[in-house]
Design a protein that fits this description.
Strand content: 15-25%
Radius of gyration: 20 Å
Shape: globular
Strand order of the largest sheet: 6-7-8
């Protein structure tokens, strides 16, 4: 496993919610963790770079700059990328996060308290492929990677040239996540099948897909000041706003 840390800075081991079980065994991600350095002034320049902010790439550039493990962010499933974003924020600014935008008053959370979903790890075998049976069809599907999400977005961009109302809908997601239909793995079969999944089956499939997808439960205990006293609210949604990486001074 290659590492990138020419200055030999101290590192932290960041555990992945997937435990690495969705990646090929030869991938460094299969270890279930990556290493990061603590952000420096260099990373502060990255996260505030106007060009990166305009392009929407500032957070990715920030994460890539402190990554020690040599990986491509596009190879990650979204929840593992969330883990790196969360870790980067904690390493750079601490675990205390005050959301000044989502509620009537500023609410503060401890990001270290965010919990992971429970999934059945017996279903994972480093192939990122899961079986499910619908009405008259046996299918296999995968948890999309960030690369898959990017490909979906590009397809939507192409569709918008024909239909301005095109969006990343359920049918399109199936076309990129279903990998096999009754033994057939060709794109035409999968796309045709995705277009005609019955609504009842689609709802069951989405529920099952969600149940096997690792992730975070973005809820926690929020605290806020009322009448000069600290109040607490349990099980409050933690929303990622601009103040996540750019807290107000």
């Amino acid at each position: 496993m290659k590492k990138r840390n020419p200055l030999n800075l101290p590192t932290e081991r960041i555990e992945l919610p997937s435990k690495g079980k969705v990646y090929p065994k030869e991938s460094p991600l299969a270890l279930g963790y990556v290493e990061m350095t603590y952000p420096t002034a260099k990373e502060e320049d990255i996260i505030t770079n106007p060009n990166y902010l305009t392009a929407g790439t500032a957070i990715d550039k920030f994460i890539e700059s402190i990554l020690v493990t040599d990986i491509d962010l596009l190879d990650l499933i979204p929840t593992d990328k969330d883990a790196l974003m969360l870790a980067a924020r904690i390493l750079g600014l601490g675990a205390e996060y005050t959301d000044t935008e989502s509620y009537k008053q500023p609410v503060t959370f401890n990001l270290s308290d965010i919990k992971e979903k429970e999934v059945n790890w017996d279903l994972f075998d480093n192939t990122n492929e899961f079986s499910y049976e619908l009405s008259g069809a046996k299918i296999k599907f995968k948890i999309p990677t960030c690369r898959d999400i990017e490909a979906m977005s590009k397809e939507v961009e192409g569709l918008k040239k024909i239909n301005p109302d095109a969006e990343l809908d359920t049918t399109l997601r199936y076309k990129f996540t279903i990998t096999e239909v009754n033994g057939a793995r060709d794109s035409k079969t999968i796309r045709d099948f995705s277009d005609r999944i019955r609504m009842a089956d689609s709802r069951k499939l989405k529920t099952y897909m969600d149940s096997v997808t690792p992730g975070y439960i973005w809820k926690g205990t929020g605290t806020y000041i009322k009448d000069n006293k600290q109040e607490k609210v349990e099980d409050l949604s933690i929303l990622i706003t601009l103040t996540f990486f750019w807290p107000q001074s």
